[in-house]
Design brief:
403 residues; alpha/beta; Rossmann fold; seven-stranded mixed β-sheet
């Protein structure tokens, strides 16, 4: 069994009460029996590029299933809304999509704070959300809700995988630089637990707000620490700014290990360049996974878009697979029936056979550790370790109450 690590980003959804628009709240248009799904990705800010990828994956999944005759004989329609990744904006968009446009399923919401706000409103809207990006543990803990499903690995799942490998990564004294919201703090706390078990010491810990462009003050303090390894949780444009400024301060070569959590990813390779060769990062999705559904997905996606999918594409496609599997199992697009059908449902997916755990609505799936390597004229992830869900998934949080 290959030893363990991780996947990555950072992430999450809505609010309101159901209005009467066609058969709003059933997920199916009364006029033409079309299943309506709202996607609400960020279109501005540090996460806009990831938002575009999330939307692209849902569009691909819907086009593919419609070409095959729909889901259980029903066509699927996407309703695309926009947000700036702020919970209030996302809630307004979700409410409009459900009450005015007839959607009852929601995807492509990005951050954990958005999902935390959205989860509390889902039952009132009679809508289901499919979280493919928000990793904060509380979303399947105290903030879990019956109508919320998470298909991406939780922070603890990925970091439990990391913990299996941490003792083998060079460096004894670790610094932590993380985004100043829930996922960043949760990641840091879990990393500190893993570091202690591995006999490592955390000597520096700082948090920067999302959309930080000047990391100079943080890097100055980091430079003055005696850390010889770095764990960083910075996303999108923030991650690019942090790594570039780290290089400007000539600090990269000082660290024996740079381990990112959702910090470096394929769409950022060009902007970051060769300076990140050798960096480690959680890799939630293995594009080279050898199963029939993944090979078909990668081939079709590459033919359509001229590039291989990466984890944001894959996790959003997986969210669509999960919803479609629930509708097929329920033989209905009624949200209540789909919710019941999904609980403890096992199905084949692009990441292999997976199960939606009924106790907390967490999808049980593998995690990976990758290292950035040179490949041809560019960069790629080499998956160097993996761990399956049996190794990484904690027991359901008692704070999660589904009934």
């Amino acid at each position: 069994m290959r030893r363990g690590l991780i996947h990555a980003l950072g992430a999450l959804l809505i609010g309101g009460a159901v209005g009467a628009c066609g058969s709003s709240g059933t997920g199916v248009s009364a006029e033409n029996q079309t299943i309506k799904i709202a996607i609400i990705p960020p279109s501005t800010g540090a996460l806009a590029e990831f938002g575009s990828a999330a939307a692209q994956a849902w569009e691909y999944a819907v086009a593919e299933v419609n070409a095959a005759g729909g889901v259980d004989g029903q066509k699927v329609e996407l309703i695309t809304m926009e947000t700036d990744a702020q919970p209030a904006t996302t809630l307004r968009a979700a409410r409009e999509a459900v009450t005015q446009k007839g959607a009852a399923f929601i995807g492509a919401v990005m951050t954990s704070p958005e999902h935390g706000a959205l989860n509390r409103q889902l039952e009132g809207l009679n809508a289901l959300s499919f979280n493919s990006l928000g990793k904060d543990d509380a979303l399947t803990g105290k903030d879990c809700r019956p109508n919320a499903f998470r298909v991406v690995q939780s922070t603890r799942m990925d970091l439990n995988a990391l913990g299996q490998m941490l003792d083998e990564l060079p460096g004894k004294k670790w610094a932590i630089q993380a985004v100043d919201y829930s996922t960043g703090h949760t990641s840091a706390e879990i990393f500190k637990e893993a570091a202690k078990r591995a006999g490592k010491e955390v000597v520096f810990e700082k948090y920067a707000p999302l959309n930080t462009t000047d990391f100079g003050p943080y890097i100055s303090e980091l430079r003055d620490s005696d850390a010889d390894a770095l764990f960083a949780v910075e996303y999108g444009a923030d991650g690019v700014a942090f790594v570039n400024q780290l290089a400007q301060f000539k600090l990269i070569d000082r660290f024996k290990t740079v381990l990112g959590f959702n910090m470096v990813s394929e769409p950022l390779f060009k902007a970051l360049g060769d300076k990140i060769v050798g960096f480690y990062n959680n890799v939630g999705y293995d594009v080279n996974a050898d199963n029939e559904l993944n090979r078909k997905f990668v081939k079709g996606f590459q033919e359509k878009y001229g590039e291989q999918p990466y984890y944001v594409h894959a996790d959003n496609y997986l969210a669509a697979q999960t919803l479609f599997a629930g509708i097929k199992a329920a033989r209905s697009a009624d949200p209540g029936k789909v919710r019941e059908a999904l609980e403890d449902l096992t199905f084949d997916s692009i990441v292999g056979k997976v199960t939606m755990r009924g106790a907390d609505h967490q999808l049980l799936r593998p995690s990976y550790l990758g290292q950035v390597v040179k490949e041809g004229d560019g960069l790629a992830f080499k998956v160097i370790a993996s761990a399956d869900a049996a190794q990484t998934s904690p027991q359901p949080d008692p704070a999660c109450r589904m009934r």
